[in-house]
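Quick check before the chapter quiz. The format below is the same one you will see on the exam, so make sure you can read both the input and the output lines.
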Amino acid sequence: MKKTQEQISYNMSRIKSKDSVIEIALRKELWARGIRYRKNVKSVFGTPDLAFIGKKTAVFCDSEFWHGFDWENRKDDIKSNREFWIPKIERNIARDQEVNTALEADGWKVIRLWGNDIKKDVNACADIIAFALKQRK
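Here is the expected output.
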């Protein structure tokens, strides 16, 4: 069934760019461990989902669709409006790499976590962050 422009517009408006389910789950786990962070820091290039300013560590919680998880194999899964979605997602992937490069050049540690990994094992993802922060002392 083809969706109307209004239905598509409504669906797209429901997609969160911050305070997503995966972000909140990770933040709750870090907070419970006593690990404090700043969220969606606009003063840090790329506006990381979580930032540890003093330790120069940026964490991004990336959803598989928008950030192109396993992109070379999954690109063919997109069936409708390919001329829009494929360049859009490829640009997101390129922008993620640009952000990583710029932050690392400025001395930041960049951690990118996939949404499914956070959903599957939020403790393991929090462990990755805790270990990185411990290394940055």
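If your answer matched, good. The CA atoms of residues 28 and 122 lie 10 Å apart.
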